[in-house]
Amino acid sequence: MLKKLRTVVYHTTDLAAAKEWYIQATGIQPYFDEPFYVGFDINGCELGLDPDMTGVVPGNQSTVYWAVDNAEEAVVKLTGLGASLIQPRTNVGGSIFVASVADPFGNTIGLIEGA
To answer: Most buried among 52, 65, 106, 115, by the most CB within 10 A?
Structure first.
């Protein structure tokens, strides 16, 4: 079911400063730059910066997204194995959907479909 790592999202309270830092750190300009999200393409992998701090404790919290064919089916399978739903399948633009669950050990597993 899991095919590859696709996206890493870092939360930040200062999106502008984080964007500039990652431009400097990677030497890459963002391909997506909006007030709600900044995305970098790092050799085919997404590095995302998210200013939404709802439920986030600052410091070393990120969500890694696994590419899947169907996020809803993945959620059903993982919750059936004891994971807890964090975010149901949600459209985040065009044909891209994300969802996330917490494994039984408290780790967040992000799922991304259509990317």
So the answer is: 65
- Identify the band that residue 59 occupies on the pLDDT scale cut at 50, 70 and 90: low
Give the whole-angstrom CA distance, residue 6 versus residue 65: 6
Bridge partners of 48, per DSSP, are 9, 39
DSSP class per residue in 77-98? HHHHTT-EEEEEEEEEETTEEE
- DSSP designation for 103: -
How far apart, in whole angstroms, are the C-alpha atoms of residue 9 and residue 36? Answer: 12
> Residue 28 CA to chain centroid, in angstroms?
19
On whether the CB atoms of residues 11 and 62 are closer than 8 A, the answer is yes
